[in-house]
């Protein structure tokens, strides 16, 4: 997925918006298998534990870990990414167990996007205070990493004490990358010190002003990374890819969706790459055309300009 001065492409699930009928999700796994074969870098799934009708977006509907395990069995190479697991709502032991299991089942293909949560109705349902989610997020990150450390020791945390036991299985490559989403109610300094990668919203995407603002944000974060070195930045956009390749970049639904032809999309992706973005996750759920048609056009006309990077082969998946 990641290399300096390079941008790769992923697809955000679901491919169609859920509006009360689960049949809209039928056949998604077959298309994800096709996405894998076509050479995209990643497939992303969302984490929305409870549907809030006032929020109006049911998200992926499926549990992200269970669904990514299902998709792992239908794919071979593509990275499997959560965007983003709500860390404060779950105990780090449960998160680490699920993540390490999925990492092993997929041969080491998991990238864990994490967030502090943006749906207030979920927190009291878990018996948690929504206002304390930032503190609980930071505590959860520390506990999670110590659980999966190569040489784990005792843990004394506000979230629990662990002595004389350890969590299995270990991550395939020794560490599961944690990609922070937005601020997650942390300071930029904290994000520079603790984030393996950073996912932020793209600002406006219909002209160059949004990518320029994004560039300043990415630059400020990288300046906060101790000792410098490369860490990847990601962004995402819901697109309505018009069948006219010259259709101009046009904001729709209050800027929530970008309608554009492929030439405009390529321009945007190039602007993101110049801004320091290393991976773009494209959502198709608001598009008018069939998802498979858009995926095919992206694979034929856009993906060659932003190819997936060569990397190590996944470890054995012969479970």
TrEMBL record:
Domain of life: Bacteria
InterPro entries: Diverse_substr_monoxygenases, Luciferase-like_dom, Luciferase-type_oxidoreductase
Domain called Luciferase-like: residue spans: 10-208
Keywords linked to the UniProt accession: Flavoprotein, FMN, Monooxygenase, Oxidoreductase
Coiled coil: none
Record-linked PANTHER family: ALKANESULFONATE MONOOXYGENASE-RELATED (PTHR30011), C2H2 FINGER DOMAIN TRANSCRIPTION FACTOR (EUROFUNG)-RELATED (PTHR30011:SF16)
Annotated protein name in UniProt: LLM class oxidoreductase
Origin organism lineage: Bacteria, Pseudomonadati, Pseudomonadota, Gammaproteobacteria, Pseudomonadales
